[in-house]
Amino acid sequence: MDYMYAPGKNHLFVPGPVHIPDQVIRAMNRNNEDYRSPAVPALTKILLEDVKKIFKTTSGTPFLIPTTGTGAWESALTNTLSPGDRIISFLIGQFSLLWIDQQQRLNFNVDVVESDWGEGAKLDVLASKLAADTAHTIKAICIVHNETATGVTNNLSKVRKLLDEYRHPALFLVDGVSSICAIDFRMDEWGIDVALTGSQKALSLPTGMGIVCASPKALEASKTAKSVRVFFDWKDYIKFYNLGTFWPYTPSIQLLYGLRAALDLIFEEGLENVIERHRRLGKATRLAVEAWGLKNCTQKEEWFSDTVTAVIVPPHINSSEIVRRAWQRYNLSLGLGLNKVAGKVFRIGHLGHLNELQLLGCLAGVEMILKDVGYPVKLGSGVAAASAYLQNNIPMIPSRI
Ligand SMILES: Cc1ncc(COP(=O)(O)O)c(C=O)c1O
Q1: Which residue's CA lies nearest to atom 7 of ligand 1?
Q2: Does the C-beta of 245 come closer than 6 Å to ligand 1?
Q3: 73, 187, 271, 374: least surrounded by Cβ within 10 Å?
Q4: CB-based burial, 51-86: b 16+ in 10 Å, e otherwise
Q5: Is 144 touching ligand 1 by the criterion CB < 6 Å?
Q6: d(Cα 98, Cα 69) in Å, to the nearest integer?
């Protein structure tokens, strides 16, 4: 039974959770199994190898944890750090704020580097802190790759360059929750020590699996890290990896089969093609926003996000009203403005199992809603700008040529 049924497919354009592909839904439609039989370890073993590809790592050790992105954060922190450790953390929006809150509640000594919402991490401040830290008191740098609240993507290769420039041994911990599998992400090349994501974002699975990947350096750090951890302890996972049974506790069988199907779809399309598709979705959305005469919350092009666009509304309009109407009248789900930007922005999520024509439906909906709330937009203007770009840039579908 549907609560608040509406005909047709809901246009789910929040930046996660996203639509689940039919192939994945079908793969998950199965009974429970004995996870101690040989089948589930065999499946898990291959999944652990394949999941490394989405992080672009060969040396990392992945953990498929029954949790959400928030639990994945906790896993990354508690396995590598000790209470009192000094860490640098960038506050650029609601999700980096929540991660910082968790870091503080776990009793780390958090050196917060704050930016205005809509701006990226202040890497010049990082440079001066690294330069001053000759005693290496900084144990980790924590950064959200793509701040989902503002649509800001940070430049991770620059962070790595700074760490190398100052020969600083700090661990490099990255939240890739709304970037991995959608925005270029290179764990090994960028020397990331812990990278993490959640199943309900670009992987297009149900919520419930946190995927954390640890570098050899992070695994080494976990041997001496003193933070209390039980459920998230990597040691327990590794013990069962070595036994070949893989699971310290009961996995969700359905999510494992779902992950298999989700990875198959990503590999069939090609990870680079997936990333390119997100580039087109991001660019098309930004062109529409510009055509509507509205501003992107993201202040500079270098930070534009290809998975989420936060659109600033004129001061006389409450963006929550736009989100409410979208759902009530057009069966379109948009993202609310969060915290500091509540009422001021609405967000268009353009990630996961999504194609360009679906996006145009969303953009057409946004135009009608803008008109509904009294913003003088010309119907079709954003769709025209986006489709003019898309018509020139959508490639042929490889399997259909
Ligand atoms: C960048 C980022 N990090 C972390 C989280 C938290 O993930 P979860 O809600 O799955 O715990 C989110 C959720 O949207 C997110 O966007």
Answers
A1: 69
A2: no
A3: 374
A4: bbebbbbeebbbbbbebbbebbbbbbbbbbbeeebb
A5: yes
A6: 11
CA distance 77 to 178: 19
- Tokens 């996660």 found at: 16
Residue 74 CB–ligand 1 contact under 6 Å: no
Q: Tell how far the Cα of 71 is from the centroid of ligand 1, in angstroms.
A: 10
Ligand 1 pocket test, pick from 65, 67, 95 with the greatest ligand atom count within 8 Å of Cβ, gives 95
Residue 215 in contact with residue 59, Cβ under 8 Å? yes
* The domains spanning 11-18+271-400 and 22-267 adopt the same CATH topology: no
Give the pLDDT confidence of 265-280 residue by residue, as tens digits: 999 999 999 999 999 9
Q: Determine contact, residues 14/333, Cβ cutoff 8 Å.
A: yes
Ligand 1 pocket test, pick from 18, 70, 92 with the greatest ligand atom count within 8 Å of Cβ, gives: 70
Q: What is the average pLDDT across 269-294?
A: 98
Question: Is residue 299 scored above 80 in pLDDT?
Answer: yes
pLDDT tens digits, 305-344: 999 999 999 999 999 999 999 999 999 999 999 999 999 9
Q: Residue ranges per domain, the chain?
A: 11-18+271-400, 22-267
- Check if the beta carbon of residue 166 is closer than 8 Å to that of residue 134: no
State in Å: Cα 65 to ligand 1 middle.
15
108 CA → ligand 1 middle, Å: 20
Is the Cβ atom of 198 under 6 angstroms away from ligand 1?
yes
What percent of the chain has pLDDT above 70? 100
Top CATH class, 22-267: alpha beta
Whether pLDDT at 171 is above 90: yes
Residue 362 to residue 334: CA distance in whole angstroms: 9
Q: Which CATH architecture has domain 11-18+271-400?
A: Alpha-Beta Complex (3.90)
Backbone CA torsion sign across 253, 74, 177, 332: positive
